[in-house]
Design goal:
Number of domains: 1
Order of helices and strands: EHEEEEEHEHHE
Number of helices: 4
Distance between the termini: 41 Å
Strand content: 25-35%
Helix content: 10-25%
Shape: globular
Structural class: alpha+beta
Number of strands: 8
Length: 153
Amino acid sequence: MSREIHLLAVRYAYQMIYMKEGERFYRKDYYKRLDGQHYIGSIAREKGHVDAFWESTSEEILEDVEFSIGFRFERRKGRRMRNPLDMIRQREMTREELIASGTYNLPVPLTRELDQLVQAGDSVDPVQDLLLPLLGIRIFPPNEVEMVGFEMG
């Protein structure tokens, strides 16, 4: 049985991932978006890139804007690692377009793994167990990872 995940759920995931000391994480590329828009989140579409979605309070159809943006992380032990979201394809869209874009099928191995967790009676966290594996993000313990910079190209 196939599971699907709606894009709007990604917004919750990103708020959770980048929450630090009770403050919400905001992107710094404000000049790239139109008035009234805010970042929704990103989801893997195919190997090699991630689509990021913006939401607009306006009903007008927006033009696609593509550029690369990323975050630089370092392990506290000194070894630099690359964030899998370093190259993000941005697309601006209205709420209606976002909803109309539909859902994404989860990979079969991930579906089976989640089914096994549910059958075993474990609680399934939407971020740790579902969205992060789908996005290909590896989690490091908080005491090992620190955001040290912001990259934009």
